[in-house]
Specification:
The protein has 395 residues and is of the alpha/beta class. It contains 18 helices and 13 strands.
Length: 395
């Protein structure tokens, strides 16, 4: 590996490495490293925030290092308490398996499946005895666990904190023992858990793993991208919707998105940043390019071009989408019921909010009354700028 490519690997799309000096030495030694990334399949779909770390794994993999994907089928039934101020709902084994199948299908859109080891936690935790649990638990103190910001806050605020949640970091840490990890990858929100793995290895007399942390991507609403916030851009988002979501992100995150989820050259991104600061770049054009590059990764170049053309047609030329779902009306419906049945609103309160904000239209007419009844008719029901449903009449 050249010095230049090593610097690129360890700086672009990287938040923190513990320890960078040690990792550089391991990489320069020329021995393939075992790269650990674990996931708790508590949710089925991946978003481009996940892609930041997965893309970095692929870069290491292309240099000959071994990716080991840990399927957290055991810990997912507990739920990762990181960043949560309440206990997680426990999942069934069947729910975990279904989510894991979907997760892996999407994960391998980026990482080479043929060069990846997939390990399930049940391989080792399925054999754990009570003695094993005690032996693992005694490697950590309560003081260790209360260094976790979420745990300490919940104790301070008098919120419930169960013993099963306290043991979660220890279980994730044990994965590193089970697979003999050299480096563990994750987002900054996983720092405590990944450091626990490094700590456990050291306490059991093993070489501690390096910690490779990537930044957390900002979502469509300006907050950290996350499923619970409904602000994600998922791998499986249809191209036209994906294009619109990228176009809706804040101008402030354009450079971060190019840096973290595209292969645009560093020099080009630096120039883009300078141009934006000087007011010489059009954010809309940059986001359109960004959208094309992201769509191409998950849906192909043809889909990216088509989505771009559709966006221009609908949002710049104010035309209707060339393809939209249909809903057959057999009778008049209250507008709230219509929004719910067409899935343009997530709940009745969401439907009321959309109407009150003036975001609901029948053709070009804005619906202003929450109690309005919509007759069965041929029309286009529109919510906001991106959601359309064609209403048709069925006898």
């Amino acid at each position: 590996m050249s010095h230049l490519s090593l610097d690129h690997l360890l700086t672009r799309g990287v938040a923190e490495i513990i320890s960078e000096k040690s990792l550089r030495a391991r990489l320069n030694a020329g021995k393939p490293l075992r790269l650990k990334m674990g996931f708790d399949p508590s949710k089925p779909d991946l978003h481009i925030g996940h892609a930041v770390g997965i893309r970095k794994l692929r870069q290491f993999q292309d240099l000959g290092h071994q990716v080991v994907l840990i399927v957290g089928d055991w810990t997912a039934q507990i739920g990762d308490p990181s960043g949560r101020d309440e206990a997680r709902t426990m999942l069934t084994a069947a729910q975990v398996k279904a989510n894991a199948d979907t997760y892996m299908k999407q994960f391998f859109q980026i990482v080479d499946r043929a060069k990846t080891q997939v390990r399930w936690q049940s391989e080792w935790f399925g054999k754990f005895t009570l003695e094993s649990v005690f032996h693992l638990a005694k490697q950590f103190t309560l003081a260790d666990m209360l260094e976790h910001e979420t745990f300490s806050r919940r104790v301070k605020e008098g919120l419930p904190l169960t013993l099963i949640e306290l043991i979660y970091p220890a279980l994730q840490a044990y994965d590193s023992i089970a697979i003999d990890a050299d480096v563990e990858f994750g987002g900054m929100d996983q720092k405590f858990n990944i450091l626990a793995g490094r700590q456990l290895q050291s306490r059991l007399g093993k070489t501690p793993q390096e910690v490779f942390l990537v930044p957390l991507l900002i979502g469509t609403d300006g907050r950290k991208m996350g499923k619970s916030l409904n602000n994600t851009i998922d791998f499986i988002t249809p191209p036209n919707d994906l294009f619109g979501k990228v176009m809706s992100v804040s101008d402030d995150v354009i450079v971060d998105y190019f840096t973290l989820v595209t292969d645009a050259p560093d020099a080009e991104i630096a120039e883009l940043k300078r141009a934006m600061k000087a007011g010489k770049a059009n954010p809309r054009d940059l986001k359109a390019r960004l959208a094309r590059e992201i769509i191409a990764q998950f849906h192909g170049a043809d889909a990216a071009r088509a989505a771009d053309e559709e966006f221009v047609r609908v949002f710049s030329k104010k035309e209707l989408p060339s393809d939209m779902p249909t809903f057959a009306m057999t009778r008049a419906l209250p507008i709230i019921d219509l929004l719910m049945q067409t899935k343009l609103a997530d709940s009745r309160s969401d439907a009321r909010r959309l109407i009150q904000q003036g975001g609901v239209k029948i053709d070009d007419r804005t619906v202003k009354k929450i109690e309005e009844e919509i007759p069965a008719q041929e029309a286009v029901l529109r919510v906001g700028r991106r959601k359309f449903v064609r209403l048709v009449v069925k006898d």
